[in-house]
Specification:
The protein has about 775 residues and is α+β, with helices and mostly antiparallel strands. Among the domains are: about 190 residues, no CATH class; about 140 residues, 2-Layer Sandwich (Nonspecific Lipid-transfer Protein, Chain A). It contains 26 helices and 15 strands. The strands form five sheets. The protein has a five-stranded mixed beta sheet, with helices on both faces. A four-stranded mixed beta sheet has the order 9-8-7-10. The chain has a two-stranded antiparallel ribbon with strand order 1-2. The longest helix has 25 residues. The protein is globular. The two termini are about 30 Å apart.
Length: about 775
C-alpha cells in the first residue's frame, strides 16, 4: 500500500514538473541571473578544479560549453605525459575542445524545445534523479560509489540509454538529494529556450583599471634588474588569486604571460610550467580577471597594494647588485631557481617568501597537487612550522654558497617527464652532498643555536609560525600554532622553502607521467626530513635520536636503506636552557613568547595551560578536543559542527579535525599497515578549516554534552551508525542543501576575501 502511494506521488511530481515547465517556458530566462546561481549553489559543489568528475567544470560558462571528457586528469598509471586541458589556457573555443575529445552536455544540434531536452546530458541526468530518487534517510545504497578513486563512467549522449539502465541511481546531483522543483524547472526551461548565455566580459571599475595598469607597468619594466625580478615574482605568484587592496572582495586576477601588451586583450601563453620557454622573443606579464566562481579548494589570495609594490622595490630593485645577463629557459637550468636567480640577493628572495609564508604553503597544497593520498602522505596529519631568519649580513657569502651548490639543488622537473627510479637515486646522493656542504657552511659561522636564529615576523607578521593539517588526500595551512603539540615540527630555511615551491607547484605537471609524479613524492621525503632535522638542532643532543626514532618507527633500514634519514648534526648543543623534559612543547611555548604578537592568536580550546574562557560552550568544546583514540574513531578527517541555538543565523560553527597517527610517512602505499588509531587526536577549531568537509554535524546547544558522550562511546560500527542517525546530516537528508548553503554563507561572511565554496567530493556515506 505504502509503495503504491509512493509511486503515485512520484508520478504526480513528474507531471507537475512537466506542467510547470510548459507554463513557464515562455518567460525569458537569464543565465547570469537565473541559471548561474543554481549551478553555483548545487553543481559547483562537485564540478570544479582538476578533480571535477569527467572534467566537467560548471563554475564558469566556458566550462559548461566545453563539456565533459572520459580522459582523467589524475592518472597514477600514466606512462607518458599527456597534453594538459586547462580551461582558458589550452583551448578557448568549443570546436577546439571537441578536437580534444570533450563532448557536449548541452544541445548542439538543431535548436528546438524538444531537441534541447533530448540532446542535453544535463537534462537527462536531472530527469534520471527525478525518476529514481534516493532514500530520504539512512545511508546511500552501495551501488553509489563515493571514493575519489572510483571509476567514472562519463557517458556521452549516445551511451546514456545503457548508462541509465546500468546505473539508475546515478542521477544528478550525484549521491545527493535532487534539486528543488523550482530549481529544476528553471534549468529545464532555460535549456528549452536554447541554453543561451548572457555573460559579458567583466568591465573594470576606474580604480581597478588604474591599479591593473600600474602593476602591469611595474612588472614589465625594461631594465635587466626589473626583468629578472619580475620573472622571479611571476614564477611564484602565477598560481594564486591576486587581489587589489581596497577593491571588492569578489575581484581577483591571475598573473599570466601574454603575447599582447597592457591595454589589449590578454592572449595567455600555453606553457605547462611557469619556467617553460615563452616561445616568443617578446612577451608581457599581464593580470587576467578571474571570471569563474571561486571555490575554496584552489583559492588562496595574494594582496597587491602600494605598500606591497614598495616592498618589492625594497627587496629587488634598491639593493646594490648588478644583473649582467638574463637567464634562458633551457629546462635543466630553468627548473633550478638557484641557477636562474643566482644574481638576485638570496636574503631578498627569502624575505619575499617569508612575508606571505601561508600563501606559499597554500600553493603547495591548493595548487596542482590538490588531490591524491599518495602525494600527501609524505607529511604528517598535523605539524608546526617555524622559519630561520634571513641574515642580511651574510647575504653575499650565502648567495655565493647557494650558487656554488646549485648542481646539488637540482630537482626532478629538470629531467622533464622521462625521470625514473634510477635518476631518483642520483637526487638522493645530491641531497646528501648538499647537506654535508650546508653543515660545513653553518659550522664555519659558529652561531649559537637559539631562538634568535628564528624569524620573528618583524614583530607583527603572523606568517612567522604555521600549522599544517593533512586530511588524508587534501590539506590546509593556517597561521599560528593550532592544536595540541604535534609529533613532528619543521624549521624551514630559504633553500628548503624555494625547493618545496619548485617541486610541488612550479615544477609539478598534473598531466605528467607516473615517473614524474612518483619522483616528486620521493623527493619531498628529502625535504621533509631536512626540515625535521633543522628542528632537531634546537633539541638537546641526548634527545635527538629518541625524537627522530619516534617519527620513523617500523622501518628496517637494512632493507629500506634508501629511506634512511640523512645524518643530522649531533655535535652542537643548542644555546637554550630547558626547564622541563617536554622539550618540544617548551620550545614552542618559548618561541611564542619570543615572537609576541607575531605568533598569532592563542589556541584557547586545544592546548592546556593557556588561559581559557569559563563560558559553558567553551568548556564543552575543550572537553570535546580532549577526546582521542577510540573515542574519536567514528569521526572522519574533517567535520563541520553546527551548534543550534534560538537564533539560527548566529549558530556557532566548529571544525573537527581528526589527526591520524602513523608509524612513519616514508612510503607511498600501505598506509593502513602503518596506522596507530589508538593514538589519534582531535583538533577543534572555531569557524572553518578545510575545503572538503567529510560530514556535517548538528546538535542543539543544550544537548552538546550528550553529543560528546555519545561520540566518545561510538567506536564500533553499530554505535557510530546510531550517532550519525541522531547528529549527522547524511547524504540522503533532504536538509543537506540547507546546511551547505548555511556553511557557505557563514564562511563568506566571516572571510569575504579568502573564502570560496566548499567541495562535496569527499563527503562520506556515514
Amino acid at each position: 500500500m505504502n509503495n503504491n502511494l509512493e509511486v503515485k506521488a512520484r508520478l504526480i511530481g513528474i507531471l507537475l514538473l512537466s506542467y510547470c515547465t510548459v507554463t513557464l517556458a515562455a518567460e525569458p530566462i537569464s543565465y547570469s541571473k537565473d541559471v548561474k546561481p543554481i549551478l553555483d549553489s548545487r553543481c559547483v559543489s562537485c564540478h570544479s578544479c582538476y578533480d571535477s568528475p569527467c572534467q566537467l567544470k560548471l563554475n564558469s560558462v566556458e566550462g559548461l560549453t566545453r563539456g565533459a571528457s572520459k580522459n582523467p586528469v589524475y592518472d597514477h598509471q600514466r606512462i607518458k605525459a599527456v597534453e594538459p586541458s586547462r580551461l582558458f589556457i589550452d583551448e578557448t573555443s568549443t570546436e577546439g575542445w571537441r578536437k580534444k575529445e570533450f563532448f557536449p552536455v548541452l544541445n548542439e544540434q538543431t535548436q528546438s524545445p524538444e531537441n534541447a531536452i533530448n540532446n542535453s546530458l544535463i537534462a537527462k541526468l536531472l530527469s534520471l534523479k527525478r525518476e529514481h530518487p534516493l532514500p530520504d534517510q539512512g545511508k546511500l545504497p552501495d551501488a553509489i560509489g563515493l571514493t575519489v578513486e572510483r571509476s567514472l563512467q562519463c557517458p556521452t549522449l549516445d551511451e546514456f540509454t545503457k548508462h541509465k539502465k546500468d546505473h539508475p541511481l546515478w542521477g544528478m546531483p550525484y549521491g545527493l538529494p535532487a534539486l528543488s522543483d523550482t530549481q529544476e524547472t528553471m534549468l529545464l526551461n532555460w535549456l528549452k529556450q536554447g541554453g543561451q548565455t548572457d555573460v559579458m566580459q567583466p568591465s573594470l571599475s576606474p580604480l581597478a583599471a588604474a591599479e591593473l595598469k600600474k602593476w602591469e607597468q611595474f612588472l614589465n619594466g625594461s631594465s635587466l634588474k626589473q626583468q629578472l625580478s619580475s620573472r622571479y615574482l611571476y614564477e611564484h605568484l602565477y598560481i594564486g588569486d591576486l587581489h587589489f587592496k581596497g577593491q571588492p572582495h569578489t575581484d581577483f586576477y591571475k598573473l599570466v604571460r601574454s603575447s599582447t601588451p597592457s591595454g589589449q586583450p590578454v592572449q595567455e601563453l600555453k606553457s605547462v610550467r611557469p619556467f617553460d620557454g615563452p616561445g616568443l622573443a617578446k612577451f608581457y606579464y599581464r593580470l587576467r580577471p578571474i571570471t569563474s566562481t571561486i571555490v575554496d579548494k584552489d583559492h588562496f589570495v595574494y594582496e597587491l597594494s602600494d605598500s606591497k609594490m614598495q616592498r618589492f622595490e625594497q627587496l629587488f630593485l634598491k639593493p646594490e647588485f648588478t644583473v649582467t645577463r638574463l637567464p634562458g629557459y633551457e629546462l635543466q637550468a630553468a627548473a633550478n631557481p638557484f641557477k636562474t636567480f643566482s644574481q638576485l640577493p638570496a636574503a631578498s628572495r627569502y624575505q619575499f617568501l617569508l612575508d606571505d609564508a601561508q600563501y606559499f604553503f597554500s600553493g603547495f597544497i591548493k595548487g596542482p597537487v590538490c588531490r591524491g593520498q599518495a602525494s600527501l602522505n609524505v607529511i604528517r596529519d598535523q605539524f608546526w612550522v617555524a622559519f630561520l631568519k634571513p641574515q642580511i649580513e651574510l647575504n653575499q657569502p650565502y648567495t655565493r654558497f647557494l650558487a656554488d651548490n646549485s648542481p646539488y639543488l637540482q630537482m626532478p622537473a629538470s629531467d622533464g617527464e622521462t625521470i625514473g627510479f634510477l635518476e631518483w637515486r642520483e637526487y638522493n646522493q645530491w641531497q646528501r652532498n648538499y647537506l654535508k656542504h650546508k653543515e660545513d657552511f653553518n659550522n664555519n659561522l659558529q652561531q649559537p643555536v637559539n631562538l634568535n636564529l628564528l624569524w620573528d615576523g618583524e614583530g607583527s607578521n603572523e606568517n612567522a609560525l604555521l600549522t599544517v593539517f593533512r586530511h588524508f588526500d587534501s590539506a590546509t595551512v593556517v597561521k599560528g600554532l593550532v592544536g595540541k603539540p604535534p609529533l613532528t615540527a619543521w624549521v624551514v630555511d630559504y633553500p628548503l622553502f624555494e625547493r618545496i615551491h619548485y617541486l610541488l607547484a612550479a615544477g609539478f605537471n598534473v598531466s605528467g607521467s607516473v615517473g614524474h609524479q612518483i619522483t616528486t613524492r620521493l623527493y619531498m621525503d628529502f625535504l621533509r626530513m631536512e626540515a625535521e632535522n633543522n628542528f632537531l638542532k634546537f633539541m638537546p643532543i641526548n634527545q635527538r635520536k629518541n625524537l627522530h626514532d619516534s617519527w620513523y618507527q617500523g622501518i628496517d633500514l637494512k632493507i629500506f636503506n634508501f629511506f634512511e634519514t640523512p645524518t643530522f648534526n649531533t655535535d652542537t648543543e643548542p644555546a637554550i636552557r630547558y626547564q622541563s623534559s617536554n622539550y618540544k612543547q617548551e620550545f614552542f611555548q618559548s618561541l611564542e613568547q619570543h615572537l609576541g604578537s607575531a605568533s598569532g592568536k592563542p589556541d584557547l580550546i586545544n592546548r592546556a595551560g593557556i588561559k581559557s574562557s569559563p563560558q559553558q560552550l567553551d568548556v564543552l568544546m575543550r572537553s570535546l578536543a580532549d577526546l582521542k583514540g577510540e573515542e574519536i574513531a567514528a569521526l572522519p578527517e574533517v567535520s563541520f559542527l553546527r551548534i543550534k541555538t534560538a537564533h539560527p543565523e548566529k549558530d556557532p560553527v566548529y571544525t573537527l579535525i581528526r589527526n591520524q597517527k602513523l608509524l612513519n610517512v616514508s612510503f607511498i602505499f600501505g598506509e593502513n599497515l602503518r596506522r596507530e588509531p589508538e593514538k589519534d587526536t582531535l583538533t577543534v577549531v572555531p569557524g572553518f578549516l578545510g575545503s572538503y568537509p567529510n560530514i556535517f554535524l548538528a546538535v542543539q546547544q543544550q544537548q552538546l554534552a550528550g553529543f560528546i558522550d555519545q561520540l566518545k562511546h561510538s567506536s564500533n560500527s553499530a554505535d557510530a551508525d546510531l550517532f550519525y542517525s541522531v547528529y549527522g546530516i547524511r547524504r540522503t537528508n533532504p536538509e543537506i542543501w540547507q546546511y551547505y548553503d548555511f556553511f557557505n554563507k557563514l564562511y563568506r561572511d566571516q572571510q569575504p576575501e579568502n573564502s570560496g565554496l566548499f567541495d562535496m567530493n569527499r563527503y562520506e556515506n556515514l
